[in-house]
Structures
1.
Amino acid sequence: MIDFLRGQIAHLETEYVVLDVQGVGYRVFCPNPYALAAKGQETVTVYTHHHVREDAILLFGFPTREEQKLFRKLIEVSGIGPRVALGILSGGSPNHVVAAIHQENIAFLTKLPGIGKKTAQRMILDLKDKLEGVGGTLFDPVPAVIGEAGLDAGNPGWPEAREGLKALGYTEAELDRVWHRLKDDVGPDEAVDSVMKKALKLLYAG
């Protein structure tokens, strides 16, 4: 079991990073690969989940232990595989996802990539009492659901993506600038994780 890797980012794609660990390149699938590069560190630590199946051996990686723990809890839920769990983490911060589960906020959960109403209900039923010490609480604010007042109906993925980027430490001014460059490249039905990855790519490139 590979629990974490520490090395340099040798290659970056929208779905994964290649981490050079003492001359060995590990392909690690991440919720937001550009967020790792955006830290500006020569050496990065990625907390991993080593997933083995009949036709593949895959590594999924996260910048924090919190995200690693939440990912492992999510894949215990019937109907949520590693790819869907990765999409959940790319579509909402761990604090927001955990708080939504505690609050039984189905409206928020069904806005996450790959999550329908039945799966959201299973998440709440299976995980509500199993997330102590992982992310948010009953009292943490959950972002407004897409489509509520004040959100841009033409680009519904941006408000949640913006919240996620703010959680990574980007300023309002930086996000305003990147949205000005990004908005014409975002489709009306584009998923939050896709919007966030495009924004991170622009932020990383400067």
Note: The longest strand covers residues 44-53.
2.
Amino acid sequence: MKSLLSSIVLWSLFLVGLSATVASGAVLDGTQKDVATYGGIALSLLASSRIAKKDPIKSFLSSRPVLWFLFLFNGVVAAAAGFALDGVQGITAAAGMGLVSLGAGFGLLQSRGTRNRGTRNRGTRNRGTQALETQGRRTPTPA
């Protein structure tokens, strides 16, 4: 029940932050608009980072097909944003999308490294684990 309640609160905060970011320009002007926009950005980023650490979302985001999509799509958008948008807006969009693409690329490299390590040491890893589990006991417990 606690997990369900925390998920509902996090998703609600994410949606409120996203709404404040998008809709503040239609309702507010000047400094109030800027404060609402930046506050909404901060709230949605904080809530989304907490949501991404929960198990179903975390395993989905770290899967290889999703990482490939994020890497390629955001890389293309970053390159296109540099040409399609002018000035600071283009640079900011290209940099932000490029960072997401690089993060997905590093995730692909890390998942590749852990996959290769797991298959290389398959036989010796189990023997070492069994030795550590039974160390200090007279009779090993069945697995």
Note: The chain is about 85% helix and 0% strand.
3.
Amino acid sequence: MALGWMTALKLVPWGEVIEATPQIMQAARKLISNTRKAPADASAQRIDSTPDHIAALQARLAQLEEDQRSSAVLIESLAEQNAQLVRAVDGLRRRGMQLLLAVCALGVCTFALLAWALSR
């Protein structure tokens, strides 16, 4: 099972993901700022309908705007978490490479020591 995860992690182009992270964050912040702007004045348009229907439509519009703001906050949060995850995985990848190099160096040293001991 671990082999599958390792293969999947090797297939991810981490360099591209890391490069794209700031753009994702910028897009999420732009979405947040766009949804935080004051809503357009709905009273400028005349709707020929009953007052109850208009009130229901206004309530629905307010709910949709709130949902949009909540979604934008969630998207920004997910983008930040994604950026943290990418940084953490990249750090783990680097540490794994360092560990592999250390193990290889120890293996070479062990082999050299064994060869030296056998030659005496």
Note: The mean pLDDT is 80.
4.
Amino acid sequence: MPTHPRESDRAASDPVEPVPEGAVRPSRGDSPQPGPPPRPEAAHDEPGPDAAGPAAAEDEYTTAIQELEDRWRRALADLDNLRKRHARELERERAAERSRTAAAFLPVLDNLELALTHAGADPGAIVEGIGAVRDQAVNVLELLGYPRHAETGVAFDPARHEVVGVVQDPDAPPGTVVEVLRPGYGDGERQLRPAAVTVAKRE
């Protein structure tokens, strides 16, 4: 009667190499096929995620520079428009101020023409009329911010007076205005012109 080998006998006749703990034992009949070992540089054949880093950074810098240039050009255009608008507004204000000043003197011209119309009637009335027109013109200048200065007997002030002569006057203290030859108008930075005066001589 033929006998079949038992599993224990088969295991004894087919020794198996011990497998380390945690390793997977290959199935019988599926022994691994020999092949070339993996190349160490195989992991470096394909570009990694950081391979495009420099190019991407350069694109970002280029985009940022273009944006800054666009903002700079827009700022220059806005500044140029502001300058032109300011120049136009300034010219309009100058024209309006000249118009107001000229209009303020129109009544003075009207009275001068009226005085010339009656020049042959009464010489005394003509002189009186011209004096009134002069006072009217002085009032207009004062309203415009340029008061008249024609005072005598006051101390000489180089900011308001221009000396055109020095005289000996025993009745006037030295350094005082004796005579005003040409009135001055305005004060300080708003001075149209200083008064031309003669001053008492200092001893």
Note: DSSP finds three helices and five strands in the chain.
